[in-house]
Amino acid sequence: MPHCPQEPGQNLAGQARPMDDLTREFLIESQEGLDRMERCLTDLEERPQDIELLAEIFRSVHTIKGTTGFLGFRRLEKLAHSGENLLGLLRDGKLSANQSIINGLLQLLDGLRGILHNIEVYQHEGEGFDEALIGRLDELQYPDVSGVEASFPHQFECSVENGPATSEQTAAIMIGPPFIAISGQQDAAINPAAPGATGAKASTASDSTLRVDVTLLNRLMNLVGELVLTRNQILQTTSLDSNLTVLSRRLDMVTADLREAVMKARMQPVSYVFSKFPRIIRDLTQTLNRRVRLVVEGQETELDKSLLEAIKDPLTHAVRNSLDHGIEPADVRIACGKEPEGTLKLRAYQESSHVIIEISDDGAGIAVDKVRNRAIERGLITSERAAHLADRELMQLIFLPGFSTAESVTNVSGRGVGMDIVRTNVEKIGGKVEIESRPGRGTTLRLRIPLTLAIIPALIVHSLNQSFAIPQGALSELVHIPKERIVSVIEWMEGSPLYRLRGHLLPLIFLDQMLDPTRGSVPSTSAAADPFSDVLNETAPTVQGQRDDFIAVLDVDGRRFGLVVDGLADPEEIVVKPLSAVLKSIGYYSGATVLGSGDLALILDPGALAAHASIAMTEYDRPHQAIEPDHATAPTSAQYLLVETAERRAAVPLDDVLRIERVPVSRIEYADSRPVLNFAGRLLPVQDSTGELSRAGRTAETPVTVVVCCDGNRNVGIAVTNVLDVATGGELFEAGSERRASGVTLLNERVTNVVALDSVPSLPSEFQSELIFGSDWIEVSAAKV
Amino acid sequence: MNASLPVRQEIAVPASIVRGDSASGSMLEVCSVRVGPTVFGIPIEHIVEIIGGVRPRPVPLAPDFVGGLIHYRGDILTTVSLRRLLYVDGIQCTDGRQDIVVLEGPGGCFGLQVDSVGQVLTVSSADHEPNPSILDGHRRALFAGAYKLTDGLLIMLDSARLDPDLLSPALIRSERVDSGPAIGLLKS
């Protein structure tokens, strides 16, 4: 399509946008070089004589200088040139790296980054005054103590303020006091061996990799999603023809492999984010006057690229917090009998479909009293309420917006925008934050991140005759209400619907009314005119009372509420597709997806629904935020799921219950005369001690309820007639001996047998159940019948 | 800046015809679509694909002009119902299925829901007229003049202005100005 030069304004804008390939390539390469340089510089502090490291840094700067001259970026060239001079001396051994040289080089790095950023955003180098920096770099070439000291006044600001004792410490963190040149020729012989080996490895790795644009990967992901969908439809239509079934099975397999491969291509090791921390910690320890050793584990753990970007800020926040509030100054540590040097540990590992990132320190821990007082002081909680909270619950208060225990506002922390940002950002990408702290021993913050963002497990619900998807991460349980009981179980407080869930009142949102406000506001009788009339309390439920309802109990951003929907479909792994801006601005939808059936479903944003219905944060009862239970103080009374089988009542420990399934009896098959349930190729042994499956009067389609439990690392099913309730069990003691009775518990004032899960026989080993339901499945379905 | 936008748009389309004049003899290929009694034209160079007989999935609480969502080559597109955008009343096609013209907008692809897609016509720039001044503000923003054909007027749609992301603020503005729908003016 020919462009005519009729509109100069448009043309200019069009010209500014595309950057020529050479510059783009240069930017990417330089950024990578600088990232490498940053890593090397922090390593250099530990091994100042490492020739390989110096050579690597020199190469990065040299490459930038060489290319800039060619591209005509004069400012960049000048700055890189002066850095190169200094680095040349270091590399040739004419100068030894010391603290001030490393500081200078880090400033050079920041300077170069700044200019590159300008080029990337504004297509030119921008105005800046590099003379001071260039001057410093030049001076550093001549290790004259007084001259350098004068040119670095701000570098030692904090240590000067803090007196001589601390300046000694500051020096001790790093390689040594400035200007004590370590005559390291004797070390040099040992050092190059190891880094040389890693250097060779790195170069072979770069030979076998290819740089791919992320948008291309996104496109691939889209196409794979499309292929998955087409496959699902083919599988549905070809089940009749045996030849086609074989072919479509293969298609199925290839598609699954392809999907996995493309997802893998989007993964990056967490070292991509972790590598920034040595520098951050180095700068912070200087500002805060701490001595900290950084330990990094599991750098090779991989995570989707977009998620890595998303956790960068929360991680930085968390690390700052650990340094500022966690690890004490060295003198305090010595007084407590600890090593003067604190340890900050970053650890990443994979746990089923999540990556866990732990930030732990061996600092002071969180003083619960301090948290309580500060929360009351800031008006986040009333003192009466605080008195009733357990330590574990008080700890959760640090995630409330506006919370900070810092005595004064510093530029590191104390502004009260710390942990709530961490939690909000992590929850935004479907993750969770857990905190664990022992006073005097340290704090561990655990971020639980889903492996990929593009595909999430979701529960599909129906409302308004349409399908909607709810991310499983927000779902805590499901409650089924048969239509004849809706009127009685939903209680109304002046027009606000509530449901009594195990003693707590749960605010309800009717999804259909929320999405179609005309439904709720036009009840069938004229009484609706006065919203406070008693009649409304009677009529409003009947509007709903035409069919069975389900309450999805959602727990998001500290808000807990029940979403009333018309129906449930199976959970599905959905591919999240973005929505256009106009639909995003409605606020209730976070995306859309194509279901296996080919239908489209909108993905609901539970947080936005709660916020719209003004559901407040609840400080109590956050089962997902729980810290690991302290086994010494674990409560002796446990929660049980009360079930009924063949007119007898039995209890299943609630912690072991994964899900409750209702399936037609015909779905139960027999392997060696043992009942099993086939879940997408995985077999679940089913216990049927009371003959529930073979009871008289059953037809093939009669549904049977199967409680899916985990027993150690296997899953078993228990066939029951009904699920009655969830209740707290009381202990029973044998008369006379006063021994605690095992296998029975007191539930609702009745002695009830506890189902022994380990008595369910295992399948023969070739049938061994591999079912692993991650925490992202519906965790407990307390179906009230 | 914003105030001058509609004016610029009106000039821009005739200019593109003039451009065609020098290159390929003042002819432009236009796809005709029908909504109610009216025939509209869309330059074919803006059309990515035409999908027939789809029923978009409605989006609760969406602005009125949003027809719904459709699945298109791995993406989910928002559709704009031309019928509702222009406040055309009356019964739509039999079961809610409509033809959808997939257009490429500045923010990505979107669908335009029409009653039916007609044919590709070749029109001459000599027959083009800008929007008449009596046209209401809402339509003036969406239309790019008309071609005088032998059997009536072919009203040109400004496909860039139909992007759902751009429509919502535009609609809020023009609805205040509008005295009401003036469909009579459009009938050919």
Portion of residues within helices of chain A: 25-40%
CATH superfamily of chain B: CheA-289, Domain 4
Helix content of chain B: 10-25%
CATH fold label of the largest domain in chain A? Four Helix Bundle (Hemerythrin (Met), subunit A)
Apparent shape of chain A: globular
The secondary structure category of chain B is alpha+beta
Distance between the termini of chain A: 66 Å
Rg for CA atoms of chain B: 16 Å
Written description of the protein model:
Chain A is an alpha+beta fold and 785 residues long. Chain A has five domains: 10-207, HPT domain (Four Helix Bundle (Hemerythrin (Met), subunit A), Up-down Bundle); 214-265; 269-450, Histidine kinase-like ATPase, C-terminal domain (Heat Shock Protein 90, 2-Layer Sandwich), CATH 3.30.565.10; 455-625, Roll (SH3 type barrels); 635-767, CheA-289, Domain 4 (OB fold (Dihydrolipoamide Acetyltransferase, E2P), Beta Barrel). Chain A has 27 helices and 29 strands. In chain A, the strands form six sheets. Chain A has a six-stranded mixed β-sheet. A six-stranded mixed β-sheet of chain A has the order 21-25-26-24-23-22, with no helix packed on it. Residues 1-17, 145-205, 408-417, 521-545, 619-636 and 766-785 of chain A have low confidence and may be disordered. With 188 residues, chain B is α+β, with helices and mostly antiparallel strands. Chain B has a single domain (5-174), classed as Beta Barrel (OB fold (Dihydrolipoamide Acetyltransferase, E2P)). In chain B, 23% of the residues lie in helices and 40% in strands. Chain B is built from four helices and eleven strands, in the order αβββββαββββαββα. In chain B, the strands form two sheets. Chain B has a six-stranded mixed β-sheet with strand order 8-1-2-11-10-9. In chain B, a hairpin with a 2-residue loop joins strand 6 and strand 7 (108-114). Chain B is globular. The model of chain B is unreliable at 1-24 and 172-188 (pLDDT under 50). Chain A binds chain B through residues 1-2, 4, 6, 222-223, 225-226, 464, 466, 515-516, 577-583, 585-586, 588-589, 592-594, 598-600, 602, and chain B through 15, 19, 23, 45, 57-63, 66, 69-71, 73-78, 107-108, 110, 164-165, 167-168.
